[in-house]
Amino acid sequence: MTYIGAHLSSARGFRKMGLTALDIGANTFQCFLRNPRGARARAADPADLAGLRELMSERGFGPIVAHAPYIMNPCSKDEGIRALAARMMTEDLDVMEHLPGNCYNFHPGSHVGQGVETGCRQIADMLEQTVRPEGKTTVLLETMAGKGSEIGGRFEELRLILDMADCRDRLGVCLDTCHVSDGGYDLIHDLDGVLTEFDRIIGLDRLKAVHINDSMNPPGSRKDRHALIGQGTIGEAAILRVMSHPALKHLPFLLETPTDDAGHGEEIRRLRAAAGQ
Does pLDDT of 115 surpass 90? Predict the structure, then answer.
């Protein structure tokens, strides 16, 4: 059975997110641990987290993914913004220790004119500060569309961060289909070629999760606008090829499409039916 889920609101609590996932036909999910566009975080309830752990074990969930807030920029020119990124990640990873064996995903950020190498060095420095060797969470660098000075639009940039970080054994990658297509990788006609390149540069063993999103923009646009599955330029057939690929089908697939829980449930049902599940 494929692990497929969607991004859910954490305001409802952790165990309730697990129940919502089950209600929409999911067996994994993604969530923010704090306001996605602010620094404020709710205090975690250990009993609630324990309830989610129990539910996941009982119902055969795949790995879940917590997502860092969008405002986090570990390669900002501003030292204060970089320090805030490190603090938020440290706090979020402390919460994730209550959910061992799962993942925490973040956008590498924008170097804002400092250059890719400097930006990658700053990201690696933050990871060195925050990712503990004894930690039980895999921290994921997300593939990005490469708009502006955004880092992560090319696989080589993620490889550079991994090479610079001494904690690389605790790190992985989350592949986003919209971002990769917008970044110029041909998921539609040459999925095998894209995965071969990923394996050569990063290593498929580093790939721990996939965001399945259609795109509002043509391949190579570098714009990053998600669309509902089958209503964008990637198309449902190409998304299904990603989900069924032998190198990927064991991973958690997470919808970040612009709809609500009911809409995600419908997408999950349609994708499962198309895959014969």
Answer: yes
